[in-house]
Design brief:
About 15% of the residues lie in helices and about 45% in strands. The protein has about 120 residues and is α+β, with helices and mostly antiparallel strands. It has one domain: Bacterial Pleckstrin homology domain (PH-domain like, Roll), CATH 2.30.29.
Length: about 120
């Protein structure tokens, strides 16, 4: 579902995506950090991880995946190597044997994404 080459991950300012978040977040929920990979987003709130997958040429069609931290059973990170230039992050959800996967180009802040995921899941 989330496979493929998406590009470099970079942190985004919450003010830049606040309008899009207003319709998604529940009362009292706050954004902690967000990372952008081309058009897609990893949004970490105090309650869940929201994956925003913008589709199509215009990016107007959007798929939102809301993953409560308590349902993440484990995650893995494979860093880029000499010949394999991409890093891969896998997130395993309880009851689902197939993980959500994202690939990041070498030089991306995949460690920042993984560290934030660890901070939220391992509370």
């Amino acid at each position: 579902m989330f496979q493929g080459l998406f590009g470099n991950a970079s942190e985004v300012d919450s003010k830049d995506i606040q309008k899009e978040l207003n319709d998604l977040l529940i009362e009292g929920e706050t954004m902690l950090r967000g990372f952008k990979v081309i058009r897609d987003l990893f949004i970490f709130t105090d309650k869940r991880l929201v994956l925003v997958d913008k589709q199509g040429i215009s990016g107007k069609k959007v798929e939102y995946h809301s993953i409560p931290y308590r349902s993440i059973s484990h995650f893995s990170l494979e860093t880029a190597g000499t010949f394999d230039l991409d890093s891969e992050l896998k997130i395993y959800i309880s009851g689902n044997p197939v993980p959500y996967q994202r690939e990041f180009k070498k030089g991306s802040d995949v460690l920042g994404v993984q560290k934030m995921l660890a901070q939220c899941v391992l509370k």
